[in-house]
Amino acid sequence: MKDILSMPVVVELIRTVTNMYAHGWDERNGGNVSVMLDEGTLGEFLDLNRVLRRIPTGFEAPELEGKYFLVTGTGKYFKNVQYEPEQNLGIVRLRDGGRNAELLWGFTDGGKFTSEFPAHMMSHAARLQIDPENRVVMHCHPNNLIAMTFVHSLDEREFTRTLWQMETECIVVFPEGVNVLPWMLCGTNEIGEATAEKMRTARLVVWSQHGIYGAGKDLDETFGLIETAEKAAEIYMKIAHLPRINTITDQQMHQLEQRFGIKAREGYLD
Ligand SMILES: [Zn+2]
Predict the structure, then answer these.
(1) Residues 268, 160 contacting (CB under 8 angstroms)
(2) How many A from CA of 213 to the centre of ligand 1?
(3) C-alpha 48 – ligand 1 centre gap (Å)
(4) Ligand 1 centre from 65 Cα, in Å?
(5) Cα–Cα distance for residue pair 124/246, rounded to 1 Å
(6) Which of 54, 58, 67 minimizes the C-alpha distance to 99?
(7) Three-state SS for 12?
(8) Among 116, 156, 167, 176, which one carries the catalytic annotation?
(9) What is the pLDDT along the chain (270 residues), one digit of tens a residue?
(10) Please, what sign has the CA dihedral across residues 52, 134, 157, 21?
């Protein structure tokens, strides 16, 4: 068996959550990340027949039966992951239609996966239907996106158009736009279901007055999506109180569509 801490996706997750903390997106125990793993690759690093613990999940996700996930732990601080990865991270396999998770590695202090596990697993299931290559779901608390939900309309078309107008590359990075949930109680199956539903039409879902969910093929793509949306929100918060005398027009957005071979969400551009 190879050392699990040398598995590329484990190394990359540790680097990513360390970077998320450095960006100020994950105060205290804020934020959580899950990555779906390939069974064949994982088998080179772990004995997949050796189950350490069985942990009830409190929800069902039959589409994810037998799937493996590397996931951050509940109550854990991203700033600590690089120093004690086996305590702050875990690898689980979903069983019994998603109602139970078999712990194969990690959470060595008796802990378990993030309290937002329902939102993560339901989002994985939803994204896999749209994009079979999807592997990552990421949640964090970026300052400016949260700030924007206090002062900007939560209408998804308007919210998306404002972000697109803040920086030229936004429409290229997330042409499907950003979906928005109103404030909801976090950690519940209800917000998980609502997030997954929003994930059917976009890889970014804002949780008003809380943070954002991103999904993608790998950690870089998902981090980059959130990073780009957060930068746009930062620019908006710098200019929202000032008279706007220039903008990126819909005509210019159409030029970007042609130049980069992307298609803006239907009905979002005039
Ligand atoms: Zn949160």
Answers:
(1) yes
(2) 9
(3) 31
(4) 26
(5) 39
(6) 58
(7) helix
(8) 116
(9) 999 999 999 999 999 999 999 999 999 999 999 999 999 999 999 999 999 999 999 999 999 999 999 999 999 999 999 999 999 999 999 999 999 999 999 999 999 999 999 999 999 999 999 999 999 999 999 999 999 999 999 999 999 999 999 999 999 999 999 999 999 999 999 999 999 999 999 999 999 999 999 999 999 999 999 999 999 999 999 999 999 999 999 999 999 999 999 999 999 999
(10) positive
Contacts of residue 39, defined as CB under 8 A and 6 or more positions apart, other chains included, come to 48, 68
199 close to 127: Cβ distance less than 8 angstroms: yes
Q: Is 197 a catalytic residue?
A: no
What's the gap in Å between 77 CA and the centre of ligand 1? Answer: 12
In the block, which residue shows the tokens 């008003």? 208
Ligand 1 center from residue 108 Cα (angstroms): 23
Q: What pTM was computed for the model?
A: 0.97
